[in-house]
Amino acid sequence: MPISNKSKQDVSTHSESSDQQPTVNKIGIHALYAENPIAADEQVFGRKTDGLTRRGFLSGFKTLSLLLGAEIVYGRFMPAGLIPAALAQTETPFSIEGKDGLVVLNDRPVNAETPAHLLDDKITPASKLFVRNNGIVPEITPKDFDENAWTLTIEGESAAASRTFTLSELKANFKHYTYQLTLECGGNGRAEFSPAASGNQWTTGAVGCPSWTGVRLKDVLNAVGIKDDAVYIGYYGEDLHLSRTPGKAAISRGVPIGKALEDESLIAFEMNGEPLPLMNGFPMRLMFGGWPASTSGKWLSKIVIRDRVHDGAKMGGNAYRVPCKPVAPGTSVPEDEMCIIEAMPVKSLITYPKSGAEHSKGKALAVRGHAWSGEAEIAKVFTSIDFGQTWQQSALSKPVNRHAWQHFNVDISFKQAGYYEIWARAEDANGRSQPMVLPGWNPKGYLNNACHRVAVKVV
Ligand SMILES: Nc1nc2c(c(=O)[nH]1)N[C@H]1C(S)=C(S)[C@@H](COP(=O)(O)O)O[C@H]1N2
Ligand SMILES: [Mo]
């Protein structure tokens, strides 16, 4: 299975110091591991593990250590079939106006993610927020933009009336609120699924947590009037379907009315005190913190209040839905056994050090990152440097508001020089945590909240 995605790291870039077989050069390391992780271990690194524990090394320890440039100190615990974190990162620079250091996954439509170390800020700057477009970005010129010319219409079976507001009216007639809200694509982490899931091969960077200013969706919906039978809202934006068919939506998703009426659910027109970047939905978008970002409609022009689950584009089939009950990898699941993704699961990201960093043995390494969950506040974050054998609890901040990510930091000491992986694992107030390996397989590769891993070479 050849892969064409240019962000996939080709093993050939690491081949100089190793004795790999030539076939490896034709296929990316993720694809190779996705096909058969144990065979990939052997093919790439000559690695064999204990058949019972599936950890450690019967062979290949030297090759892999050589490739990583240091001895794998906790090698006896290293799980089989796991791409070393040092080799799993992607590094293709991307340039779109106003974005800095993002990695391109696709340019038609534009999709770009942020390398973990560039998400180090507590409040994600606009230049570091990922971009996920399903269609063609509307032709709007943010400079000299006329706020009287952009309208938002509220209608639908369960709207008491149909009303249209200009952006200036929305800004003038409703109170403004500011919240820091986590925006994460439901497919963040998809690259690791096996069998491989189609779609953008996000690694860890389809997430960010800027500060958003706007009006409360509930204030606007209540001003129009919500009928008693309302169950859902749906959005429409001004982007075009890739086919450029007039009137055909690229995406039109929504949330249950309960989520729509939360205080933090916004019609947002500012990110970090500035107008939204065009790519992130200028001049206004929905913002539902902690839910799949596909619910946060960009270039917003219409909201429908529905008496049934919204049935717009990408609400059905395998789109943003997962099997209601766990299934074996590769299973084909009937429509009626698929459930819409609601809150995103517990997750964390190490933003310092950058994976692959060198650190000197003499001093402790100050590790930091963020943790979040769409369901509940994060209660604890742990890190491990021995492939999950032991865990150290880190310091953790409170969220500035509901659905904002939290920050953790911990000083880690290393007794011996060598190759290490730092793993992070968060746990929320309901006791829900992150798996160390891939969670439940689903056809489109959503909801991968496996522990984040970064490589560190201690010298
Ligand atoms: N109108 C519109 N809204 C949209 C999309 C889109 O393609 N069109 N993509 C959705 C998806 S799948 C995601 S992950 C987020 C991405 O938001 P961002 O590009 O601001 O990071 O926007 C959501 N809202
Ligand atoms: Mo998404």
Describe how the helices and strands are arranged.
Elements: H1 29-35, H2 37-45, H3 61-68, H4 85-88, E1 103-107, E2 110-113, E3 131-132, E4 151-155, E5 163-166, H5 167-173, E6 176-180, E7 183-184, E8 207-208, E9 211-216, H6 217-224, E10 232-237, E11 254-256, H7 257-260, E12 266-271, E13 274-275, E14 285-287, E15 300-306, E16 321-323, E17 338-340, E18 347-352, E19 357-359, E20 365-372, E21 378-384, E22 392-393, E23 395-396, E24 406-412, E25 418-428, E26 452-458
Parallel strand pairs: 4-15, 19-26
Antiparallel strand pairs: 1-2, 2-3, 4-5, 6-9, 7-8, 9-12, 10-11, 10-15, 12-13, 12-14, 16-17, 18-20, 20-24, 21-22, 21-25, 23-24, 25-26
Helix pairs in contact: 1-2
Bound molecules: the ligand Nc1nc2c(c(=O)[nH]1)N[C@H]1C(S)=C(S)[C@@H](COP(=O)(O)O)O[C@H]1N2 and molybdenum atom.
The site of molybdenum atom (MO) has 6 residues, from loops.
Domain Moybdenum cofactor oxidoreductase dimerisation: 340-458
Domain Oxidoreductase molybdopterin-binding: 142-312
Cofactor: Mo-molybdopterin
